[in-house]
């Protein structure tokens, strides 16, 4: 999940290259939602061995209430740190 700031706009997506995709979002290299809303911070992620399983989880989470997503972020990243650097 990418965020614009703590408790800001959230973006949820799936990729097979998290570091590369997060870099694109951080640097506004791709037109779309994240660029328009300034979602540049990687605040939560989960790794899956199976892309289909990851897509199913994404679809499930996109139906979640915003409060549930915030609870998930705050449980694993209570200070809303940008996790991008932890990928390396």
UniProtKB/TrEMBL annotation:
Coiled-coil boundaries: none
CDD domains: GIY-YIG_unchar_3
Name this polypeptide is given: GIY-YIG nuclease family protein
Domain of life: Bacteria
Family statement drawn from the similarity comment of this UniProt entry: Belongs to the UPF0213 family.
GIY-YIG domain sequence ranges: 1-71
């Amino acid at each position: 999940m990418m965020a614009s700031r703590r408790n800001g706009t959230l973006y949820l997506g799936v990729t097979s290259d998290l570091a590369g995709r997060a870099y694109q979002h951080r640097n506004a290299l791709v037109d779309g939602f994240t660029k328009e809303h300034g979602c540049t911070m990687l605040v939560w992620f989960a790794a899956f061995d199976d892309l289909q399983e990851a897509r199913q989880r994404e679809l499930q989470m996109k139906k979640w209430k915003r409060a549930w997503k915030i609870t998930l972020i705050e449980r694993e990243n209570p200070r809303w740190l940008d996790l991008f650097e932890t990928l390396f």
